[in-house]
Amino acid sequence: ATREERNIVFNDIKVHPDYNPATFHNDIALIPMNRPVQYTSNIRPACLVDVAPPAGSEVVISGWGTISAGGPQSAILKDTKVNIVSRERCQASFEDAIITQNMMCAAASGTDACQGDSGGPMVLNQRDANGIDQFYLAGIISWGRGCARPDFPGVYTNVANLRGWIDEIVSADQEVIIETPEVTEPSETIDTAE
């Protein structure tokens, strides 16, 4: 794995006006960049989805969070594959919380996002007719119960449902650049199974 993370200086953060920190509804913010990011073979922008991926779709999540619940923070960017879970199945797992339309869920056996990964990307990879991979930001790591617990999928911000707000902010402030480093090939996975 190469170390291509970048420290970015920023002066502002645009939090969704209806963000609710108690329920994590509308858990999204945009960061105006002071300067463009230098792209590499591993650091490229991802498109934004227009429609959330359906249940069963495989997506990649990544972050520098802990590698197990209560464990140490990762020194390198980790990624793992998870599958979208239906809203109904997710809501059944979280009886005391409301999974809103602006949330989506994903899970896989023994792997998950963990503490410190919040705000990281959930990326959908689609290969075009020419065989070129195109990456789409489908979700943003938001919250969950523990890490990789079999009865609790991870909960993510549903980017497709918030495109109106994103587009409004971007068109009002052309300095806002929406970027997320996507993972071209999973090199290491977050494995929290013990």
The portion of residues forming beta strands comes to 15-25%
Query: What is the molecular shape?
Result: globular
Structural class: mainly beta
Number of domains: 1
- Uncertain spans: 179-194
**Numbering strands along the chain, what is their spatial order in the largest sheet?**
4-5-6-9-8-7
Order of helices and strands: EEEEEHEEEEH
Secondary structure tally: strands: 9
Summarize this structure briefly.
This protein has 194 residues and is mainly beta.
What does this structure look like?
- The chain is mainly beta and about 190 residues long.
- The chain has one domain: Thrombin, subunit H (Beta Barrel).
- Helix content is about 10%, strand content about 25%.
- It is built from 2 helices and 9 strands; from the N terminus they run βββββαββββα.
- The strands form 2 sheets. The protein has a 6-stranded antiparallel beta barrel. The chain has a two-stranded antiparallel ribbon with strand order 1-2.
- A hairpin with a 5-residue loop joins β7 and β8.
- The longest helix is centred in the C-terminal third of the chain and has 10 residues.
- The two termini are about 25 Å apart.
- The C terminus is likely disordered.
Write the layout of secondary structure elements.
Layout: E1 14-15, E2 29-30, E3 47-48, E4 58-63, E5 78-85, H1 87-93, E6 103-107, E7 121-127, E8 133-143, E9 154-158, H2 163-172
Parallel strand pairs: 3-8
Antiparallel strand pairs: 1-2, 4-5, 4-7, 5-6, 6-9, 7-8, 8-9
